[in-house]
Design a protein that fits this description.
This protein is α+β, with helices and mostly antiparallel strands. Helix content is 31%, strand content 24%. It has three domains: 250 residues, FAD/NAD(P)-binding domain (3-Layer(bba) Sandwich); 88 residues, D-Amino Acid Oxidase, Chain A, domain 2; 70 residues, no CATH class. It starts with a strand and ends in an 18-residue tail after the last helix. The relative contact order is 0.15.
């Protein structure tokens, strides 16, 4: 048992990381730059919480492993819980079959994070502190992290520091300031923009979730809706290619008219919130696992390492699976010496599977820019694109894809001889492998 650990950031990753560290440290300080509410409300530092969020089944299972009994707390907080049979997902190839009977999702970032935050507050060895971290403390040679520097000029010492501060992590600059290198990045940009609003309404046919995207074009329009309970739904509209999203009531209604199910749901609905808009960051991997100068006793997880396209719903779930992996690494590693590289390499491998799933979709957009994938990844993307129509036609393919999408199975489970034959049979339709713009082209 070690003495003290610091976790930077009190989002999903930071909260769950604090719980894992209670098994290995006598005291944990969880630092968040903004005051944390005691009620389920949107947070200043989490603008994405005003848009549709899903906790996939792989993430739900990870959360229940970390916090036994939390499903009861979620039900008490009226967090929406539903299965694939309660969802309608329309794809360019047709509706997705209502399969996956063993899959359960939870919906709504604000309530999920609130329940998780209250469970962490009950942990006797975790202290929540409102402060802004401005840098890392290290040994004179910069090879070992010993704590963090705060904006008020003070410092806090620790045996281990974990950066869970999200996509806005300043870790590259902090590392550079102590003589280490910045990590290289992989980027994928499709120019995604969200607009969301809460309505007093219900989805037709007792649905809990509706999601639809039309095709992979420069200005593809996407739509999603989630039943929040109490006859409220949140509707998220999106467009790729840096297209315009609605910012007024009239424009929001006109955009929703493109989707018949939403047209029905919103026909007599009344808004319960303002319209929230958000420009989505590029998908990004910071390759800390390849950083030869990565200091000891400093770990990074969640969006501080990998930012996924939120349209695939992987963010919260991968953050929780990252945390479970951290616990396993701390259990397996004999000491904190060497834990940084040990964990970051395993984290990179774990995140790669989810990255492959989103990449197979994002690289279909003709306007995609970013880091060109290597040839093996191009083949994977090509194969994934070819078998997508099969997911709407073959129950076995749909079931396998459901498990991959929900982070329960590896994408390699889709390499079935039947699926390979399907891909080859129709390969002449789009034989050339796609070309990609370089990261320098990102605006």
């Amino acid at each position: 048992m070690y003495d003290h650990a610091i976790v930077i950031g009190a989002g999903i990753t930071g909260l769950s990381t604090s719980r894992v560290l209670t098994d290995h440290f006598r005291a944990i300080t969880l630092i968040e730059k903004d005051p944390l509410p005691h009620t389920p409300t949107s947070r200043k530092g989490v603008p994405q919480d005003r848009h549709l969020h899903l906790l996939l089944d792989g993430g739900r299972r990870a959360l229940e492993d970390l916090f036994p009994g939390i499903a009861t707390d979620m039900a008490r907080a009226r967090v929406p819980a539903f299965g694939m049979n309660d969802a309608r997902i329309d794809t360019p190839h047709g509706p997705f079959p209502t399969l996956g009977k063993d899959v359960t999702m939870w919906g709504g970032r604000i309530k999920i994070e609130h329940v998780l935050r209250e469970r962490v507050r009950q942990l006797g060895t975790v202290s929540l502190r409102t402060a802004r971290v401005t840098g890392l403390c290290s040994t004179p040679d910069g090879k070992t992290i010993t704590g963090v520097r705060l904006q008020d000029g003070t410092s806090l010492q620790a045996d281990l520091v974990v950066d869970a501060s999200g996509a806005g992590s300043s870790a590259p600059a902090w590392l550079e300031s102590i003589g280490a290198s910045r990590p290289k990045e992989s980027l994928v940009q499709i120019g995604l923009t969200y607009a969301s609003q809460v309505y007093q309404a219900q989805l037709p046919d007792n649905l809990h979730l509706y999601y639809r995207f039309t095709d992979f074009q420069e200005n593809t329009r996407l739509a999603g809706a989630l039943a929040l309970g109490d006859e409220e739904i949140i509707v998220t509209l999106a467009v790729t290619g840096n297209g315009a999203v609605p910012r007024t009531e009239a424009d929001f209604s006109a955009f929703a008219e493109n989707f018949p199910l939403l047209r029905t749901a919103l026909h007599t609905a009344s808004p319960r919130s303002d319209i929230a808009t958000m420009q989505i960051l590029p998908n990004r991997i910071r390759h800390y696992e390849k950083l030869s100068s990565l200091p000891e006793k400093f770990l990074l997880a969640g969006h501080a390492v990998t930012v996924f396209n939120p349209a695939y719903g992987q963010g919260m779930s991968m953050a929780l699976q990252n945390t479970v992996l951290l616990g396993k690494c701390l259990d397996a590693h004999p000491s904190l010496k060497g834990i940084s590289r040990y964990f970051q390499r395993r984290l990179a491998r774990a995140n790669h599977a989810a990255w492959r799933v989103s990449g197979a979709g994002d690289y279909q957009y003709p306007h995609v820019t970013g880091t060109p994938p290597r040839f093996p990844t191009q083949l994977e993307n090509w194969y994934g694109q070819k078998i997508q129509p099969l997911f709407t036609q073959d129950p076995d393919a749909a079931e396998r894809f459901t498990r991959v999408f929900h982070l329960l199975s590896s994408p390699t489970s889709l390499a079935h001889p039947k699926f390979l034959a399907y891909a080859l049979r129709y390969s002449l339709r789009h034989t050339p492998l796609p070309t990609y713009s370089h990261a320098e082209d990102l605006s």
